[in-house]
């Protein structure tokens, strides 16, 4: 068992923690019993209490069972952040079925693959996405789609600028196989007994993957409960938690660090359907938001707003996230503005969120943190699969209660994803990193993202982190580009900060040569108005790299 990090272990957190032997849905039941009138969800000025949340999940679950959903069936959940997402998630579990969270950027062909792979009989869908799923009704397994407009849950007038999708009135066309969300609730059907237990399937998030079709990561109620409970224990989440949810809940960070841990503690979720830095700052100020788990690019965007000092965000007591390292320059600005240290963590779809988190009292910058409650993590040589020493870069592996059961219908891929070490089965993350003498883990890059420039290994994430210290750079994404002599070399796609439009390509290249090893320096720089991001806020480096090599 890796124990090097126990010297910096948070005093109030147990190293091992027995998990509730229940279905995840019991968390809603318990919080509704304890705090029936307390707001579980705040949505652009409108509240839903825990009693209302439980009532609507029960009624929707009853309808799902009437629609033929059986225990263990997979049900697609295809919508952006909204009250309906949370209600739908728990209604599926209450029906003893399995949630399949779907990226709302997916379209018709991608949905066809997911329906075929999971054999889902029913989908819960947002109105603006219904045209993409409707063609599949009656084909393969899909029999029915239950559709809702986000506006149905904005029940009070608001002065907040709403995303276009949230302003759309409900205009659901009840064609064959399409049911209105409100009609499903109004049927007032009650579900049968809750029979799914800790070892039954709970959620199958699909990993984005690097090649081929995405793979479904099979999680039980036990593995999902693990990061739900561990996350709450790590930062002492209480009923008083008011959590800004700006990362997508279809992604495991939003699902676990935001939604499930907060509901487990009986706190309030302040839900945003789309990211808007001014709306986020307004919500923090008005609602006294005290917790914000996010993607570092959101903090970069908020703090780059010229009007940020007009907002009072002093209620924030805990801020952190994962997905991408927090640039040191931005972390310093956050510290200056709020007095808070950005607490970084690390996890994957296969681990249903965190396996490593920084200790709240001893966070290190641009660091994954230490192994989480009950997690044994090591670093191995990619070729020999032997464990390496502190400071040596290799592949990060881990074992713990949150590790998935395997890939859905992919036994070969499942076998490849694990390695045996010291008589134990460890999950291979596919991420390169190292740990220091104190047991803190650091990410170098994805195994597949490395740039090999004339034999020199360049890790784009490291170069990006260094470049954020340039005063003219607001955002940067480092990719490889073909090179006649080196095979490939380093290129930086840069978004300039406001007022720095006169900065030239050569200015940035020259600065890089002054501040990092020559082989890491971008040989080329291109400027862009923005850098494409995934729904989770991660820079879409692969998209930019594919475009670059396509042009070549």
From TrEMBL:
Gene3D superfamilies: 3.30.300.30, N-terminal domain of ligase-like. Residues 31-408 form the AMP-dependent synthetase/ligase domain. InterPro entries: AMP-bd_C (IPR025110), AMP-bd_C_sf (IPR045851), AMP-binding_CS (IPR020845), AMP-dep_synth/lig_dom (IPR000873), ANL_N_sf (IPR042099), ATP-dep_AMP-bd_enzyme (IPR050237). Residues 462-538 form the AMP-binding enzyme C-terminal domain. SUPFAM superfamilies: Acetyl-CoA synthetase-like. One of its GO terms (molecular function) is acid-thiol ligase activity. Keywords: Ligase. This is Long-chain fatty acid--CoA ligase. Transmembrane segments: none annotated. It comes from the Bacteria.
């Amino acid at each position: 068992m890796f124990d090097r990090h126990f010297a910096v272990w948070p005093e109030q957190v147990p190293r091992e923690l027995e998990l509730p032997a229940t279905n995840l849905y019991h968390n809603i039941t318990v919080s509704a019993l304890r705090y029936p009138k307390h707001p579980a969800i705040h949505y652009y000025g409108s509240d839903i209490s825990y009693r209302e949340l439980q009532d609507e999940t029960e009624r929707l679950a009853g309808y799902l069972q009437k629609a033929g959903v059986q225990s263990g069936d997979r049900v697609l959940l295809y919508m952006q952040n909204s009250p309906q997402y949370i209600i739908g998630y728990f209604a599926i579990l209450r029906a003893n079925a399995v949630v399949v969270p779907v990226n709302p950027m997916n379209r018709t062909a991608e949905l066809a693959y997911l329906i075929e792979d999971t054999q889902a009989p029913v989908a819960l869908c947002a109105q603006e996405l219904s045209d993409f799923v409707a063609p599949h009704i009656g084909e393969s397994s899909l029999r029915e789609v239950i559709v809702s407009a986000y506006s149905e849950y904005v029940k009070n007038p608001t002065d907040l600028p709403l995303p276009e999708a949230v302003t759309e009135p409900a205009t659901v066309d009840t064609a064959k196989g399409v049911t209105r969300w409100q009609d499903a609730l109004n049927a007032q059907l009650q579900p049968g007994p809750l029979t799914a237990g800790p070892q039954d399937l709970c959620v199958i998030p699909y990993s984005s993957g690097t090649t081929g079709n995405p793979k479904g990561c099979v999680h039980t109620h036990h593995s999902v409960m693990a990061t739900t409970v561990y996350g709450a224990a790590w930062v002492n989440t209480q009923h008083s938690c008011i959590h800004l949810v700006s990362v997508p809940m279809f992604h495991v960070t939003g699902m676990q660090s935001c939604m499930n841990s907060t509901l487990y503690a009986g706190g309030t979720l302040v839900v945003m359907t789309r990211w808007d830095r001014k709306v986020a700052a307004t919500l923090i100020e008005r609602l006294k938001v005290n917790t914000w788990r996010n993607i570092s690019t959101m903090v970069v965007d908020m703090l780059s707003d010229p009007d940020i000092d007009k907002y009072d965000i002093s209620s924030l007591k805990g801020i952190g996230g994962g997905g991408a390292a927090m640039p040191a320059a931005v972390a310093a600005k956050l510290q200056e503005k709020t007095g808070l240290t950005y607490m970084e963590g690390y996890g994957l779809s296969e681990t249903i969120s965190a396996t490593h988190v920084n200790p709240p009292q001893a966070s290190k910058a641009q660091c994954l943190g230490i192994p989480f409650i009950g997690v044994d993590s090591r670093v191995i040589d990619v070729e020999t699969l032997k464990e390496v020493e502190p400071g040596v870069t290799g592949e990060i592996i881990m074992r713990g209660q949150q590790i998935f059961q395997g890939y859905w219908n992919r036994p070969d891929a499942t076998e490849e994803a694990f390695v045996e070490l010291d008589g134990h089965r460890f999950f291979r993350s596919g991420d390169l990193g190292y740990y220091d003498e104190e047991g803190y883990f650091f990410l170098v890059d994805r195994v597949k993202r490395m740039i090999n420039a004339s034999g020199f290994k360049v890790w784009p994430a490291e170069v990006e982190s260094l470049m954020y210290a340039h005063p003219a750079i607001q955002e940067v994404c480092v990719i490889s580009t073909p090179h006649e002599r080196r095979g490939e070399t380093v290129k930086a796609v840069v978004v300039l900060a406001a007022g720095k439009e006169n900065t030239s390509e050569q200015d940035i290249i020259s600065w890089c040569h002054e501040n990092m090893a020559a082989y890491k320096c971008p040989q080329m720089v291109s400027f862009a108005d923005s850098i494409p991001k995934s729904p989770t806020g991660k820079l879409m480096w692969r998209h930019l790299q594919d475009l670059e090599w396509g042009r070549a």
